[in-house]
Amino acid sequence: VVQSLRTHSGTGVPFSVEFNPPRDAAGEARLWRAVREFERMHPAFVSMTYGAGGSTRDRTVRITGALAQETTLLPVAHLTAVGHSIAELRSLVGSYADSGICNVLVLRGDPPGDPLGEWRKHPEGVEYAEELVRIVRDLGDFHVGVASFPQGHHRSPDLDHDTRHLCAKLRAGAEYSITQMFFDVEHYLRLRDRVIAMDPAEGAKPIVPELMPITSLRTVARAEELSGRPVPADIVARLTRAAGTGPEEDRAAVRAEGIQIATEMAQRLIDEDAPCLHFITLNFAKATSEVLTNLGYGVTAAPLSA
Ligand code: FAD
């Protein structure tokens, strides 16, 4: 991933996208349409999430393997520790390697059913992502990324604790982090400052900001569910104003405002030298490609070799 970011940065700030394992055949067809759309835009990498507790394990492995073998994209497989023994985690990483995947985003995961519920490690598993970073690195030639949290992880008592453990994951061998989505760029910039201040060597590793274009008032709730944080009041106010005062939400206006908000955030991140823009797509290409078009990214540029 880090190599691909370097290669792609020759033509400006690279972008990347996140997909989810589809639930059924229709979802899989939709995912592949999005994959082919993005392929024309040459993302630096694409990541595939891992369902809570391994619920999507076989599909995640199969589809991420297909991305490695049947596309020009660089896939990153998410891997979560929740519900797995170390032996199972090793075997999963082996399945990824067999499919030609060498980039893994290592995560602890949340308790299935209730992300805020009590965390219990698998009796033969790992307690923290840091341990899993070491396990994956020891298994072979894998490039590992980890999660970072602009406003702190919800289980961290304070930002200092949060930064300390992020630095520990990076020192354990992670080469970069991808943030939780956020809607206030200041939170991202302060995270970057904290890591650099605590550990300048680890602070030099890319912190990739994650963005999600909001396309409806319903997506506000989805964004809050995914990030575990409220969407800031000024953003909600802009979207609500766009929705209008009529009995029905003005969906086109809300969508346009959501795309505009994501474009403004992305532009600020570019101005602040972010190493990449990582978009949550929910397996749709349209909203993200509109933001990228607003920013002047082309779809016809020659592919870059990663
Ligand atoms: P950890 O790094 O283990 O941290 C968990 C908590 O423990 C933090 O509060 C941390 O500060 C603290 N901590 C860490 N080490 C120590 C220590 N040694 N002593 C004391 N405290 C410590 N979830 C999924 O289920 N599937 C996905 O595909 C997925 N993808 C994600 C992608 C991104 C970019 C992000 C940001 C999150 C993703 N998540 C995913 C959610 C993630 O699994 C949860 O946020 C989870 O609660 C935290 O995972 P972590 O890897 O950061 O955990």
From TrEMBL:
One GO term of the biological process aspect: methionine biosynthetic process
Record-linked Pfam families: MTHFR
Catalysed transformations (reactions): (6S)-5-methyl-5,6,7,8-tetrahydrofolate + NAD(+) = (6R)-5,10-methylene-5,6,7,8-tetrahydrofolate + NADH + H(+)
Domain of life: Bacteria
PANTHER family: METHYLENETETRAHYDROFOLATE REDUCTASE, METHYLENETETRAHYDROFOLATE REDUCTASE (NADPH)
Assigned protein family: Belongs to the methylenetetrahydrofolate reductase family.
Organism of provenance: Nocardia coubleae
One GO CC annotation: cytosol
Protein name listed in UniProt: Methylenetetrahydrofolate reductase
